[in-house]
Amino acid sequence: QLVQSGGGLVQAGGSLRLSCVASGRTFERYTMGWFRRAPGKDREFVTSIRWSDMSTDYADSVKGRFTISRDNARNTVYLQMNSLKPTDTAVYYCSALEDNTWRYWGQGTQVTVSS
Predict the structure, then answer these.
(1) pLDDT, tens only, 76-98
(2) Which of 16, 20, 77, 94 has its CA 20 to 30 A from that of 51?
(3) Whether 47 contacts 68, CB under 8 Å
(4) Are residues 104 and 2 in contact, defined by beta-carbon separation less than 8 angstroms?
């Protein structure tokens, strides 16, 4: 129900944009988020955006570099990633929050940042 696109290989300092399109249902009234899992590490929260007021939260590690946005008309959430670092290398997942649980997940997208 959440289909991701974007990602790939980029040099340090570069930019990428990830997209997450909802299908089969609307996520207009859901808080949406992005998570990532680096090799050998647990999945970690990256950012989220609320449907009610578009307020956002960011992990300290990405503040000032990543931006989450959403287009409810297109049922799409974006993650703009700038000034990428090798430590940002991970599989990125979009997710939708329901009943205080990150219940719905995208398929994952590989982001690799070379030094």
Answers:
(1) 999 999 999 999 999 999 999 99
(2) 16
(3) yes
(4) yes
Q: How many angstroms separate the CA atoms of 46 and 86, rounded?
A: 15
CA dist., res. 67 & res. 5, Å (int): 16
In angstroms, what CA-CA distances link 73 with 8, 28, 99, 102, 107?
26, 8, 23, 22, 22
SS3 85: coil
What is the four-CA torsion angle of 18, 22, 28, 30, rounded to 10 degrees? Answer: -80
Which of 41, 111, 45 is CA-nearest to residue 82?
Answer: 111
**pLDDT tens digits, 35-52:** 999 999 999 999 999 988
Residue 95 corresponds to which tokens in the numbers above? 């997710």
Give every CB contact of residue 64 below 8 A, 6+ residues apart in sequence. Answer: none
